[in-house]
């Protein structure tokens, strides 16, 4: 089996926590290439028809797929400063705690997003569209 050189993270763009995690990963030093595809998007449905909308999944360029807690750990594995942590989270002593932590955060991710004021990619996109529409309307009136 060839080594993994790229991962595609299928994330929930409606979730502020997921969107922020994506931004955070992009700021880290990566040991393998990371690509991001919004869950449920036409691109995600075309490329990964077996992955349900809203699911966190990571797909390797080797064809391997990880879901949920395993996907989260694979994301950490891809980052230089967090690879050791990823390995530690798979040890017998910590793996059960990692699963419980992921499940707790996952079940409450929308509430956590609101509490922490983390806006999703979709919310930011909608806000920018409103600003641009207002700006364009103002400029049209000015030109008249």
Helix and strand content put the structural class at alpha+beta
Task: Look at the structure and give the mean pLDDT.
Answer: 88
- The geometry reads as globular
Largest sheet: 4 strands, mixed
Let me know the number of strands.
4
Distance between the termini: 65 Å
Number of helices: 7
Q: How many domains is the backbone divided into?
A: 1
Radius of gyration: 18 Å
Instruction: Tell me the series of helices and strands, N- to C-terminal.
Output: EHEHEEHHHHH
Keywords for this entry:
globular; 144 residues; alpha+beta; 7 helices
What do these coordinates show?
This protein has 144 residues and is of the alpha+beta class. The chain has one domain. It is built from seven helices and four strands, in the order E-H-E-H-E-E-H-H-H-H-H. It has helices spanning 16-27, 42-47, 68-77, 83-88, 92-107, 109-115, 121-143; strands at residues 6-11, 33-38, 57-60, 65-67. Strands 2-1-3-4 form a four-stranded mixed β-sheet, with helices on one face. The mean pLDDT is 88.
Quick summary:
It contains 7 helices and 4 strands. With 144 residues, the protein is α+β, with helices and mostly antiparallel strands.
Layout of strands and helices, then pairs:
Layout: E1 6-11, H1 16-27, E2 33-38, H2 42-47, E3 57-60, E4 65-67, H3 68-77, H4 83-88, H5 92-107, H6 109-115, H7 121-143
């Amino acid at each position: 089996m060839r080594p993994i050189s790229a991962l595609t993270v299928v994330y929930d763009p409606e979730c502020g926590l997921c969107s922020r995690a994506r931004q955070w990963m992009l700021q880290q030093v990566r040991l393998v290439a990371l690509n991001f595809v919004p869950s449920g998007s036409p691109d995600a449905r075309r490329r990964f028809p077996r992955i349900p909308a809203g699911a966190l999944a990571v797909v390797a360029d080797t064809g391997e797929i990880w879901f949920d807690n395993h996907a989260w750990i694979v994301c950490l594995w891809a980052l230089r400063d967090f690879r050791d942590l990823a390995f530690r989270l798979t040890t017998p002593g910590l793996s059960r705690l990692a699963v419980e932590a992921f499940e707790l955060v996952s079940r409450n991710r929308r509430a956590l997003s609101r509490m922490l004021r983390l806006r999703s990619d979709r919310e930011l996109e909608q806000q920018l569209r409103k600003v641009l529409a207002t700006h364009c309307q103002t400029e049209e009136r000015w030109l008249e």
